[in-house]
Amino acid sequence: MALEPLRHGLVSLLVLLLLLVHAASAARARDLHLEMVTTSAATARAVPSCASWRLGVETNNIRDWYSIPAECRGYVRDYMYGDLFRQDCAVVAREAAAYAEGLELGGDGKEVWVFDVDDTTLSNLPYYADTGFGAEPYNATYFDEYVANATAPPLPEVLQLYETLLSLGIKVVFITGRHDYEKEPTIKNLRSAGYHTWDKLVLKPSSLGSSVVPYKSGERQKLVDAGYRIVGNMGDQWSDLIGAPEGDRTFKVPDPMYYVG
Amino acid sequence: MALEPLRHGLVSLLVLLLLLVHAASAARARDLHLEMVTTSAATARAVPSCASWRLGVETNNIRDWYSIPAECRGYVRDYMYGDLFRQDCAVVAREAAAYAEGLELGGDGKEVWVFDVDDTTLSNLPYYADTGFGAEPYNATYFDEYVANATAPPLPEVLQLYETLLSLGIKVVFITGRHDYEKEPTIKNLRSAGYHTWDKLVLKPSSLGSSVVPYKSGERQKLVDAGYRIVGNMGDQWSDLIGAPEGDRTFKVPDPMYYVG
């Protein structure tokens, strides 16, 4: 460790130099930012940083958006394919498993865990990779084909959580925004992805409106009315989680690719 | 701009050198980390990445924690002092301002915006910088001194939002976990930080328990009962925001330094 003082001196020097260079770059970035503000439409507000935009989405501070900011397309691609998304998923699954393992269950088989399907239990990354990671408009025809193919992979961390919940004796209920007519491919896909059993799979009647909050909270209410206790509720959209009854605890799976209100 | 190629070359060289130095440090950090895992209690579980831990905190997936993970002390310090925290705050304030500007106000002066105080309107970073950015145990004596000094700076982005709200005719109410006996320094500090007017400043009676959810939601209920419409509700803790009535829309200010349930 005799080299430590030398190493620290070198690091300090390098950091100082980098900070000086960074300061010059930051000044130029601010100029660019000002230009963007003057030329962009209100619907395409400049983004201070794609990381901040993503945090804003994940915390439900940014709502009612239709596509990711154009300048964040590469950022979202790198995030979804990189380590960080998987680590973010691992943290959610780990916290959920630790919480479930700490529960005192009643032994009456009435505890249920509600899962959303799309981008919670199954991943639609193959579809989104083909459509700009949320930067291109939603393509209903192509997405219906994707669902019909029943080839969506699982989110591995969520699949592992699912196994943990079953081993604890907690029942699983899927409540999905997928429509009634997509029941067969959804069952086929859940099974092929490793979700081999569940107590209930609730699909959205085609007659319902576009907001999923009343539909999903209404279905949770039916579970409670039937005597179930919703110990956990997990989804990639805040609209999966909010609206009474929320369940004893909610878990937000990361998803920077789209917004469902 | 003839110096650009030279500048880029210099940056590349510096980045390369820093990466090499960082790799050596990271290897040592991993050794340390492995040691910690073998010796730590279950309450100090290993963290996949500090960025994922922070996202878990901000999305309310990680709850009931008492201090930041020891290995994330440097990460949280760099985050709080760096551009990202300020950009994260700017996104929240920008979304809140855009939302407020889009409201159709009743003209009866009954719309209010609820703000938390600590690390929402005022920053306690000076206190946390002295206590390991949340890595060291909460020091009630020192924090009381910090509050009594009334020198906390504002969060600039929130102060700007506050001015926007007032200019729109939305009233401001502060509901804080600070105690009754801290009323005078809190008023003094809010004023010196630039919060020059408000309709109500609610402080917590010393007799109340430690959870702030019943206290804060109860105070929001009193506002609603008095005929106010809570159009926005902003805080750095989820316990500032949850519990009916939440207000028409909630905004989570980033805070990776501590957890209040």
TrEMBL record, chains A, B:
This is Stem 28 kDa glycoprotein. The lineage of its organism: Eukaryota, Viridiplantae, Streptophyta, Embryophyta, Tracheophyta. Belongs to the APS1/VSP family. CDD domains: HAD_VSP. Pfam families: Acid_phosphat_B. NCBIfam families: plant-AP (TIGR01675). InterPro entries: Acid_phosphat_B-like (IPR005519), Acid_phosphatase_pln (IPR010028), APS1/VSP (IPR014403), HAD-like_sf (IPR036412), HAD_sf (IPR023214). Keywords: Glycoprotein, Signal. It comes from Zea mays. Residues 1-26 form the signal peptide. GO terms for molecular function: acid phosphatase activity.
